[in-house]
Amino acid sequence: MQANNHNDQSDKSPVVQLTFKDRCALIQLCNKPVNALSQQVRSELLDAIKRATENADCHAIIITSDLALFSAGADISEFSTGNLSPMLPEVLNTIENCPKPVIAAVNGSAFGGGLELALACHYRISFAKNKVGLPEVHLGILPGAGGTQRLPRLLDTQSALDMIVSGAPTPVSAINSVFDKTLDSAQEVVKAAFDFIDEAISKGPRPTRAVSLSMNEEKAALFSQYAEGVEQKAKGFFAPLKCVEAVKAAYENNFEGGLKREAELFMACMETPQARAQQHFFFAERAASHLADIDKALETRDVKSVAIIGAGTMGGGIAMNFANVGIPVKLLELKPEALDKGLGIIRKNYENSAKKGKLTAEQVEQRMSLLSGTTSYDDLADVDLVIEAVFEKMSVKKEVFSALDKVCKPGAILASNTSTLDINEIAQATSRPEDVIGLHFFSPANVMELLEIVRAEKTADDVIKTAMQLAKTIRKVGVLVGVCFGFVGNRMIEVYGREANRLMLEGASPEQVDRVITEFGLPMGPFTMGDMAGLDIGYFVRQSRQSFIQHDPSYCVVADELVEAGRVGLKAGKGVYLYENGSRKPIPDPQVMEIAKRKAQELGIEQREISDQEILERCIYPLINEGAEILKEGIAQRASDIDVIYVYGYGFPVFRGGPMKYADEVGLEHILARMTHYQNKLGDYGQHWFEASSLLRELVETNKDFSSLN
C-alpha cells in the first residue's frame, strides 16, 4: 500500500510507498530520477512515518529506495520558492524521535539530504563499494538538516570534517563506524535489513543525538589547525569555513544547541553571493547539455573508432581521452619520426600517471594497445570520427579536410580542433559539409574538461547531438557554440588580453595586473597565462587579423616586440617574465617595463599609477561586454553557457558563477556606467574598444539581467 497524501497533491503520483510486512513497515522512496527530497517526498515520508508509528502491528521501520540510488539529496530548485513545509530537519527529527527502531537500508548512493536521512535513522545498513557524501559545500552552503551534528557523533572528528568540508563522495568501506552492517553488494541490503529486525527491536531506538560529544584541548587544536588550512585553500569561498564552525558547534553545544547553530550558519551561507553563484553554476552546467532546437528522438551516429590528424601535444592529448574510455584511436603523422615521438609522449604521460598511483601498469598497456599510428590517409577509411589537430593555418586545415573527404566513409564525422578559424570555410573543402563540426579541446587536452562544440552553417543535427553525447563519454563538459573568430572562449579572452597589455603601456606592471586577477579568483593572471601558453600563439593570431586591429597602433605592441626578440614565454625561459633553470615560477623583469615605457612614449601614451580597481574593471568588464555581443549574435545558446565555458576553460572562479553571473551580481547598470566612463576617459582607444554592447544597454533599459537570457 502507498502513503496517503494529505497535502492536496492528488494530481501527482505518490513518491513514497508504504508497505506493512513481517511486523515491519517498509518505506520506499520512488521519486524518479534521483529521489530528490522534494516537498512532496518530505510530506509523504512524514505521513508514512506517522502511520507506521501508529500501527500497533508494526514494531520496526525500514527506509530504503525503490530506485538504483538511495537519494541525491535536496531538490535545490525549491530554494527559490516558498513552498518548503515540511522542512527536512522537521522530517528527520520525527524519524530520530520515533519510538520504534528505524533502519536505513542504503541500497545506493546517498548524498546531501539523502545521507542526512540515513544519519537520522537509528541503524544503517549498506554495501562496501557504495558511495555517500555531503556535497552541499559545492552549492555554497553546508548540510542544513543535522548533517554537521550527526556525522561527528558516528565518525571521528577529522574524517567528519574532511567529508563535510570537501563535499567529496566517500566509500562506505572508509567510514564503517557510520554503518551497523556493511555487505558485499547492493542486492543484499534490503534483505539484510529485514534480517536485522529482531536485533533492532531487541535493542530499541538508538537516536544519533544521544551520542555525547565534548570539546577538549586536543580537539580545539585540531579545529584551529583545520580552519587555518581551509582558509588558505578555499580563498574566495564562504561556505568551507562555516562548515568547520558548524562541526565545531557539535562539540561545544548539546544537540539542540548544535542544530540551532547549524541553522544559523546555513542561513548565513544562503544569503551570500557565493551561494547564489555556485547554485547558478550547478544549473548552468546541466543546462549546457540541453539542445533546445534538436529533436530529442533523433538518433546519434555510432563512434566506435577515431582518428586524430597530428600527433603533437594537442593531438596526443585528444587521443588519450578516447583511449581512456576504451575507444581505439589511429594517430596520423606524415613523418614516421613525428609519429613515434607523439606515441612516445603519450606513453610517458601514462607511465607518469602510473608512478603517481593513478593507473596500474596493466592499464597503461591496455590504453596504449588502443593507440596505433599511420602515415597514410588510406588507413582512415573505416573510422567513425576524425579530429584534425594540425597547425592553426587555414590553408593547412583545408588541405587536411580535402584529403579526408576523399578517403573517409560516408557518415564519418569530420571535426576540426581549430581554436579560432572559420569552420564554415573549412567545411567547404569537402563535399559533405553536413558532416563537419568543430571540436575545440583546451590544452592540455587530456586534462582540461571543457569542449567547445562548434556548429557550422550546414552541420547536421545528428552530428551535433553525437558530439554532445560523445563529450560525456570522454568525460568532458560539452558546450554548443556558433562560428565566429575564437568562438566563445577565445573571442572573449582576446579582449581580456588586449586590456592587460594596454594597461602595461599605461603604467601598470605585469605583476600588478596578475596579482589583481589572481586575488579576484582566477588561477593565474593574463601575463602568466600568456607565458604558459606561448606568446607566439597570440602573435600569429594578430598577424592574421591586421584588418581588425590596424586602427589601434598600441595593440599588444610590447608582446609583439618580445616575440620578435625570441621571448615567447616559459618554453624559451623568458617571455613577459623570466624563468630560471627550468622553473615555472615567473620572475619579474624590469626590462619589460622599460620596453613598455619606450613604446608608450613613441605612441604618446602618458604613463601613470593605475589602481587595482581600474585594472579589475578594465580586464573583466570588456570581457563581459564581449559576452553580451556573443549572446546578441546567437553564438552562445544562453548566458549561462558562457559561464560554463569560462569556469571550465579559463578558471573563472566558480564562487563568482562565471563572468555573466558575476555581472548580474555587480549589476548591469554599474557595468554599463563603467564601460561608458572608460570610453570617455581613454580617448580614441576608449571610444573604439569600450563601446557598450547594444544588448547590455537594452537589458539595463528594460531592468533585466543576463539570467533572463538562460
Please outline the helices and strands.
Blueprint: E1 16-21, E2 24-29, H1 39-54, E3 60-65, H2 88-96, E4 102-105, E5 110-111, H3 113-120, E6 123-127, E7 131-133, H4 147-154, H5 157-166, E8 170-171, E9 181-183, H6 189-195, H7 197-203, H8 217-233, H9 239-252, H10 255-270, H11 273-287, E10 306-309, H12 313-323, E11 329-332, H13 336-355, H14 361-369, E12 371-374, E13 385-388, H15 394-407, E14 413-416, H16 423-427, E15 436-441, E16 450-454, H17 461-473, E17 477-481, H18 489-506, H19 510-520, H20 526-533, H21 535-544, H22 546-549, H23 557-564, H24 590-603, H25 612-632, H26 639-650, H27 659-666, H28 668-681, H29 683-689, H30 694-701
Parallel strand pairs: 2-3, 3-4, 4-6, 5-7, 6-9, 10-11, 10-13, 11-12, 13-14, 14-15, 16-17
Antiparallel strand pairs: 1-2, 7-8, 15-16
Helix pairs in contact: 1-2, 2-3, 4-5, 4-9, 5-8, 5-9, 8-9, 9-10, 11-26, 12-13, 18-25, 19-25, 23-24, 25-28, 28-29
Summarize the structure.
With 710 residues, the protein is of the alpha/beta class.
Describe this structure in words.
The protein has 30 helices and 17 strands. With 710 residues, it is α/β, with parallel strands linked by helices. It has 3 domains: 16-270, 2-enoyl-CoA Hydratase, Chain A, domain 1; 306-481, Rossmann fold; 489-709, N-(1-d-carboxylethyl)-l-norvaline Dehydrogenase, domain 2, CATH 1.10.1040.50. It has an 8-stranded mixed sheet, with helices on both faces. Strand 2, helix 1 (39-54) and strand 3 (60-65) form a beta-alpha-beta unit. The protein is globular.
